[in-house]
TrEMBL record:
Residues 42-198 form the Multidrug resistance protein MdtA-like barrel-sandwich hybrid domain. The gene is czcB_3. Pfam families: BSH_RND. This is Cobalt-zinc-cadmium resistance protein CzcB. One of its GO terms (cellular component) is cell envelope. It comes from Lignipirellula cremea. InterPro entries: MdtA-like_BSH, MFP_Cation_Efflux. It comes from the Bacteria.
Length: 283
C-alpha cells in the first residue's frame, strides 16, 4: 500500500485492529461555497471598505453606495414618528369631552328633577335644549375618541415608514453573504452601480470539498459521518474532515458512486483544484 495512505490510515485508526479503510486515490478539492455580493440600490460607490484577498465575515460591509438622500429620508421619518407619538399619547381632548358630557347630562338630570317637583319652573323648550346639548357633547366625545384612535394608527404608520427608510439606508451597503475571502472586486469607488450588479466575489476557504469515486459495493449505508483524511502530494500533513455525501446513483459504465468529504482548511494551505488521496476511516 502507498506509504502516504498508510500514514493517513494510522492517523485515523489509532487503537483499532485490522482496519479496512476506503481509499480514494485521486480526490479533487473544490469549493464548498462561493457567493457574489451585488449592489442592492442604484448609485455611486462612495466607499470601498475591503481589498482583494481580505478575509470577511457574513454580514460585513464591503462597500457603501452614496446614501445622503436615504439618510435624509430617515431623519424626516423620525420627525414624523416623534410628532405622531406625541399626538398618540395626548388624550386631553378625550378627557375634556368626557367632562363636558358628564356636565351636560348632569344639567339634564337636574332640570328634569326640578320640573318633576315644580312643573312650571322650566319650559319644555329649555329641557329640549339641554338634551340637545348633551347629545352634542356625546358626539364630541365620540369624535375625540376617534381622533385619538386615529393618532395611534398614524403612529403605527409612521413607525413602519421609519423602518422602511432605515432599511433603504441599509440597502446602500454591499455586504458579504458568507464568511470567506474576497477574490474579485468588479467596481471601484466613484463608479455607478445598478441593483443586482455584481461587485464582489467571495470564496469560503476554511472548509473545502474533497470529491472522488469509489466502487458502489464499497459504499455502506453508514459511510456518511465517518472521519476522513486527505493527503496532498508533497505535503506530509494530513487534513481531516468527515464524509458528508454519498450519491444514491451508480455509474453503470464502471459501477462507481460519487462521494465527498468536508475537509477542514483553517490555515488555507489547501486550494481548490488540488488532487490528493482521501482515506475514509473504517466503521
Amino acid at each position: 500500500m502507498n506509504p502516504a495512505v498508510l500514514l493517513l490510515l494510522a492517523s485515523l485508526t489509532t487503537g483499532q485492529a485490522k482496519p479496512e479503510p476506503l481509499v480514494v486515490e485521486s480526490a479533487i478539492l473544490s469549493l464548498l461555497d462561493q457567493r457574489e455580493a451585488p449592489a442592492r440600490e442604484a448609485g455611486v460607490l462612495d466607499q470601498m471598505l475591503v481589498k482583494e484577498l481580505q478575509t470577511v465575515v457574513a454580514g460585513q460591509s464591503l462597500a457603501v453606495i452614496d446614501s445622503v438622500d436615504a439618510v435624509l429620508e430617515v431623519e424626516r421619518s423620525e420627525a414624523h414618528r416623534d410628532n405622531a407619538s406625541g399626538r398618540s399619547e395626548n388624550d386631553s381632548k378625550v378627557k375634556f369631552a368626557e367632562k363636558e358630557l358628564e356636565l351636560a347630562r348632569y344639567e339634564v338630570k337636574r332640570l328634569t328633577d326640578r320640573i318633576a317637583r315644580f312643573p312650571d319652573s322650566a319650559s319644555p323648550e329649555e329641557l329640549e335644549r339641554r338634551n340637545i346639548q348633551a347629545e352634542k357633547s356625546a358626539a364630541a366625545l365620540q369624535d375625540a375618541q376617534l381622533e385619538f384612535k386615529a393618532a395611534k394608527y398614524e403612529l403605527r404608520i409612521a413607525e413602519a415608514d421609519l423602518k422602511l427608510a432605515e432599511r433603504k439606508v441599509d440597502r446602500h451597503r454591499i455586504v458579504s453573504p458568507i464568511d470567506g475571502v474576497v477574490v474579485k472586486i468588479a467596481r471601484r469607488a466613484g463608479e455607478w452601480v445598478q441593483p443586482g450588479e455584481i461587485v464582489f466575489r467571495i470564496l469560503r476557504l476554511d472548509k473545502l470539498k474533497a470529491e472522488g469515486f469509489i466502487p458502489a459495493t464499497l459504499a455502506p449505508p453508514d459511510l456518511i459521518g465517518r472521519r476522513a483524511a486527505l493527503k496532498i502530494a508533497g505535503d506530509d500533513t494530513p487534513h481531516f474532515g468527515r464524509v458528508l455525501f454519498v450519491s444514491p446513483e451508480v455509474n453503470p459504465a464502471d459501477g462507481t458512486t460519487r462521494i465527498w468529504a468536508e475537509i477542514d482548511n483553517p490555515g488555507r494551505q489547501l486550494r481548490p483544484g488540488q488532487r490528493g488521496t482521501l482515506v475514509i476511516a473504517p466503521e
